[in-house]
Design goal:
Bound molecules: pyridoxal-5'-phosphate
Order of helices and strands: HHEHEHEHEHEEEEEHHHEEEHEEHEH
Radius of gyration: 21 Å
Largest sheet: 8 strands, mixed
Structural class: alpha/beta
Distance between the termini: 30 Å
Length: 380
């Protein structure tokens, strides 16, 4: 008998999503003009306590569009954490700029401000802090550093819808922020993304570039090269429904996290679940598990293999980007100024994500947790 693997992530879609999508389809407005687009942009900006939301077709182009709207391109350096999903760095390359990788903070994995300050050169134009696995970056010192060097800050909040940094919601903390609504993110539109900003000028640049750079006052006149990065009204219908259900969805995710926390209470020597700073109220995205300091990636993979045999899927942490062929040639900078990003490497080897869907019952979480503890006892 083939047992279905319990996946790491599943979308939480219900009758409200069905109703709004159906209504979008029935209205005939299935491309990128429509009521749901305007509503989603307005309500998402409000949710992020910021002024404008510009919807786009995914989180990667959200980053690309943000960089283009800020005129970042060839010759410019953009500081990104080495420990992130590849899209953060790929978008910098798409814009023709150069990513510079920095090391991360121990345990929580967000970019290290000391490393950022060591990475600055006269070519540095922007920093992309990533609110990794739902945990916000320590924004105050980062913003202060950015301000004193006149650098742009674009939050990559793809994994952190609704996370709080010292009581302030992410998405309006920097000059711009980008979001993804991919199927495994906290809120989903299938594929989709958003750029948020408070800046009027940047907002109009984002809108023009997203829509083929057409002159707002002259139809079919394109003074520069633009993009078609629009989201559809059908996707936005999903987005409006998901946003209305944010409290419900994030509440369910928190309950899953709490079930894991109690299952591993007192077992911190074997595994740490979702470490966080006292100044952060992270969004609950994928559940993070960290094996003891010094555990190798091979050991971690063996443990995850055991979990899989028991019917539970998992994901290793992101592989730090400076190891990968297209990114190897770029500079990388640690907090001590060195090139070895040991904190990122250490965390990436020890970390993995456990099944995190809203539909998981406490019983299933308990089964996953005992299977994990058993695998650790056998293999570590
Ligand atoms: C998911 C993700 C993205 C990219 O989003 P897509 O919608 O998949 O293009 C970018 N950055 C981070 C940190 C992500 O997790």
């Amino acid at each position: 008998m083939i047992k279905r693997l319990i996946p790491v992530a599943e979308p939480d879609l219900g009758p409200l999503e069905e109703q709004f999508v159906l209504s979008a389809v029935k209205s005939g407005w299935v491309s990128s003009i429509g009521e749901y687009i305007m509503q989603f942009e307005k309500e998402f900006a409000l949710f992020c306590d910021t002024s404008y939301g510009v919807s786009v077709c995914n989180g990667t182009v959200a980053l690309h569009l943000a960089l283009k709207a800020a005129d970042i391109g060839p010759g410019d350096e953009v500081i990104v954490p080495a420990l992130t999903f590849v899209a953060t760095a790929a978008a910098v390359c798409h814009a023709g700029a150069t990513p510079v990788f920095v090391d991360c903070e121990a345990e929580i994995g967000t970019l290290d401000i000391e490393a950022v300050s060591r990475a600055l050169t006269p070519r540095t134009k922007a920093i992309i802090p990533v609110h990794l696995y739902g945990h916000p970056v320590d924004m105050d010192p980062l913003l202060e550093l950015a301000r004193s060097h006149k650098l742009l800050v674009i939050e990559d909040a793809a994994e952190a819808h609704g996370a709080l940094y010292r009581g302030r919601i992410v998405g309006g903390l920097g000059d711009m922020a980008t979001f993804s609504f991919y199927g495994n993110k906290i809120l989903t539109t299938g594929e989709g993304g958003m750029v948020t900003t408070k800046d009027d000028a940047i907002h109009s640049r984002l809108r023009i570039l997203r829509d083929h750079a057409m002159d707002p006052n002259r139809r079919y006149w394109h003074p520069e090269i633009g993009y078609n990065y629009r989201m559809t009204n059908v996707q936005a219908a999903l987005g409006v429904a998901q946003l209305q259900r944010y409290e419900e969805i994030s509440g369910k995710r928190r309950k899953v996290l709490e079930a894991y926390r109690s299952a591993f209470a007192g077992k911190e020597e074997a595994v740490i679940i979702n470490p966080h700073s006292d100044w952060a109220e992270p969004a609950t995205w994928l559940i993070c598990a960290l094996l003891p300091e010094g555990t190798s990636a091979e050991k971690r993979d063996l443990i995850c293999g055991k979990l899989r045999q028991q019917g539970f899927d998992s994901r290793p942490y992101f592989i730090p980007l400076h190891h990968m062929p297209p990114y190897r040639t770029f500079r990388s900078v640690a907090a001590n100024g060195g090139k070895e990003l040991i904190v990122s490497d250490n965390l990436a080897a020890r970390g993995f994500n456990l099944p995190s869907s809203t539909c998981l019952s406490e019983d299933v979480v308990n089964n996953i947790s005992s299977a994990l503890l058993h695998a650790i006892a056998m293999l570590l």
